[in-house]
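WARN no homologs supplied; continuing
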Amino acid sequence: MDPKMREDQRESENGSTRSRTSIFESTTTMMSVSTLIWDVCRKCICQESNTAKKNTQALVMLGLMILPLFPILTLIIQNGFSLSHLVTFKSDVIVNEVFVRESEEISDTIQKLQEERAYAVFLISLTTNNGPNISLHSQRIKETFIKTDLVLSKISNWQTDENDIRFDSQLRFQIRLEDFRELLLKSAIASADEDIIAIPTTIQDIMLYYNSLIDVLMNQLSVKISKVKTKDVWRYVVAYESLARVLEHIGREVMFGVLYTQNKKLDEDESKEVYEEQQLSQDYLEMTQSFIPSLAGTIKLAQSDQDFLIYASFKMENGQMTFSENKTSTQYYYSSIAYVKKIQDAKNQIRDEINKSVHEQVKLSDRQQAIGILILVVVLIISPFMILLSRNAVQTIQIFSKSLQKKSTDLRTERKKTEKLLYKMLPEIVADGLKNGNTTTETFKSATIGFINIDDFSTLTKMHSPIEVINILNEIYTVFDSRLDLFNVYKVETINDSYLVASGLPKRSETHCREIAGLCLDITKTCQTLDIQPELTVRVSAGVHSGLVVAGIVGSKMPRYCLFGDTVNIASRMQSTGEPGRIQITSATRTLLETQGDDFQCEVRGVIEVKGKGSMETYWLVSQISKRA
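OK structure emitted
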C-alpha cells in the first residue's frame, strides 16, 4: 500500500482512539462528582436525622436512589453518540464500496468496448486491403463480442442517458449493439466475397459509433467516482479515472493509425485530432503519475520496449501525421494493443489498491463498532445495583404474568376443543348463531337432499358380528366423509346403512343441485375400488330430490340439526325405490341440473308410484361429462 494511504488510515484509527479516550475521561469525572454528592447527602442525613421532617427524608432518599444513575446514564448517552457516529461511518464505507464496484463495472465495459472497437477497425482495414485470414479474424472478433456481452450482463445498476436512447435500458443497448455488429460482419464478409451484397462499413463509421458509446460511459464513470467520499482512496480513484481516459485517447489514436495504413494519408482535420489525442493521453498519464508516484516505474518500463516504439512512430511531421518508419497495419495494431495492455495492467493495480483500502475500511468500522458495543455491555454490567432495587417486584409481576398467561392459554385451548367438537356436531354457521342466542330454525326455498344407502346391509349384518359390522361401517363412512370435503355439501347424519347429505343449507348456494349430484357420482365410483375385506363388495344406491326444506336444531341434550319437509321424504323414496348401484333423481332435480352449469348425463326411468305422492317421473343420473369449475 502507498505510504500516504497508510498515513491517512493511521490518522482515522488515531481519531477513533482519541474519541474513546475522551469518553472514559468524561465518565470518570462524572463518577467522581457523583461520589462527592453522595458523601454530602449522607452527612446531611446523619446531622438532621433527628429533626428533619419525614417528607424531607423521603426526598433525600429518593435523590440518593436516583443519584447513582447519573454516571451510568452519562456512559450510555456518550456511548450512544459514539455508536451513532460509527454506524454512520460504516454506512458511508458501504456506500463507497457500492460506488467503487459500480465504477469497476463501467470501467470493465469501457475496456471491452475499446477492445471491440480496435479489432473492428483492424478487421475492416484488412478487408479493404484484401488482407489475409479474414475469416479467422472474423471468428476472433465474434469471441470479442461474447466477452463484451459477458461484462455487460454483470452490470448491477444500469445507468440511462437522457441524450442517447440506446442507454434507455440494458436490453435496448445490447440490441442496438448487436445490430451494429451484424452490419459490421456483413460488411467484412462482403468485402472478402463478391457474391455477398452488404452496405459497406468504414473505419470512420466504426469510430463514430463506438466513440459515442464510450463517451457516455466515460461520463457515467466520472459521476460514479465523484460520489466516492473517503480521503483514504480519493487519490487512487482519481488516478483510476485518469488511466481510463489515457486508454481511451490512446485507443482513438490507434484507430487513426490503422486508418492511415489503409489510406496512406490523413486529412488536416484528422491529423489535428490525432495530435490532440496524443497530447491528452500524455497529460492524463502525467496526472496519474503525480497522484500515484509508485506507478512511474511501471509506466517507464512499458514505454521502453519495442511495442511502445512502434506505437510512438506514428507522429506529427510538417503538419501531417505519418510513420517515421514503414509499418504495416498488422504490425502497428498488435504493437499498440500490447502497449495498451500494459497500461491496463497498471490500471488494474490501482483497482486492487482501491478494493484493498475499501475492505480495510469495512474491517476497521466493524472493529470500532464492536468496541463501542463492548463498552455499552460493560456499562450495563456495572449497573446491577440499580436493577436489584426493582428485581423482586419485577419477578413477582413476571411470575403472576406467566401464571396468568398459562391459564389464558389453557382456557383458549379448551375453548378451541369445545368449538371444534361443537362444529363437528352442528354446522359452523348454525353453532355460531346458537352461541350468539339467535334462532336456528330457517326455511330454505331451494335445497337438494341426498340419501345414500349401502345395498345388502341385512346380508352384511348376518355374515359378521356386531363389532365387525360397526368397524366395516366406520371404514365405509370414513371414506364417504373424505369425499365430502371435495364438495360444498353438509353431512346431516348416518342412520344404520343410510347416509343423509344436503347442499344449499345451512349456507345457501346457487349450485346445490350439482354439488349433491357430483358427490353421489363420486361415492358410487369410489365404492367400485373400495377394498375393505377380500370377499366384501360395497355397492350403494342413492336418491336425490330438490325443493323447499325447513331446518333447525332440535333438543337441548345432544342437540341435532334436523331437516323437515316433503323434499326429505321424496329424496328418501327416490333411494328406496331405486336400484342397487344407481342414482335416482326427480324431474325437479334434473331441471336444476340443466340450469346450474355442469353437463350431467341422465337416462329416463319413467313414471313410478311414490308413496304419499302418487305417480312421479324419475331419471337415472349416469355421469358428469364436463369437469367441475
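Residues 52 and 102 are 73 Å apart (CA to CA).
OK
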